[in-house]
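[09:14] KT: can someone run the structure on this one? pasting the chain below
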Amino acid sequence: MLITNIGELLTMVPRGDDPLGRIAGAAVAIDAGQVVYAGPASGAPQGAHEIIDAEGALVSPGLIDPHTHPIFAGSRAPEFDLRARGKSYAEIQSAGGGILSTVHATCAASDAELIASTLARLDRLMRHGVTACETKTGYALDGPGELRLLRLLCEVQQRHAVDLSITLLAHVPPPEENRSRFVASFAHNTIPTAARAGAEALDVYCDQGAFTREETRTLLEAGRAVGLRLRVHAEQFTHTGVADLAAELGATSVEHLEQLSESSIAGLAAAGTVCTLLPGAALTLRLPWPDARRLIDGGCTVALGTDLNPGSSYTESLPLMMSLACMQMGMSCAEAWRGVTVAAAHAIGRRDAGWVGRGARGDLVLWDATDHREVIQHYGVPLVRRVVISGSEQRLGARPE
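[09:31] RB: done, structure tokens below
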């Protein structure tokens, strides 16, 4: 495949003082799923079997969403209205809503129903330019239920072009189980089984109403022992200090960080832990905006994710998260672009994705824009024109029944 007549190509390979590695009048050639040429159109190889005329459009690497919860059933639209009328997340959860309502609906849904709804969400992510994403379990809570969701995500991966990095999520302790016994069983049984069954990472939610810092340590150490990458839902509603623990244990990423302390930043930067910020959740829950500017100035790598989930960030629009990050969190347009490409690729362990150059995977997005800043400025509007994954153009219409 040869994509030619590109107005502005974002390679994400820095060139001088340009962190986006922009090339004007560019072409990209893809063979056997990998980029074999990215540069001026005059030097492009000849003889491609398929040629796409970009018609002067902006072309970027495929976007990468480093934090999603796409496998669930049920609706929490009534809770959205309750929050709009002043109820807090904690009040809704204590009344039987929140995560537990999704858990009940998800456990009651059939495998076929969960697969179909997850495929539909991946379709919507792809229509917003996503070609790879992290996907979490988390809406079963008990070990067997989480392993079921893991199995279904592995099945979804075989049926969708978007590349999935699958994470086992320890979301909250099941309310009906003995807490210490559950943590021990999850650490000694569920986590090793998940590592053998296709999980790439372990995520633990540490906060009030979820796991304590010491329980989180137990679970993370169990995940590290079986070779899983480590992630942590950290410092969202309360400051627990778990970001420091994540850095100590060499976690790949920490996610949320609305309540992050100044003292944690140097440790995260030194550990190379990606700070995955989720503006959709902060917006929905009316939390403080994560301070991306402070993190970047402190030497941290910042990625951006949708936090796609039914309760606190029900969106598949990663470009909208870029807009919010620039308007509310102190990021420049270039920093936002890197946050959904190379930084996000680092967060999910995809070093061949999120950039365009020889040897990179052939994932590209053609935009209805000529300047990379337009995608962020023109917020809330789908601007994706075409999506290519591993050198194959994807159908962006509704999934057939």
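[09:33] KT: thanks! Residues 161 and 389 are 7 Å apart (CA to CA).
[09:34] RB: yep, looked fine to me
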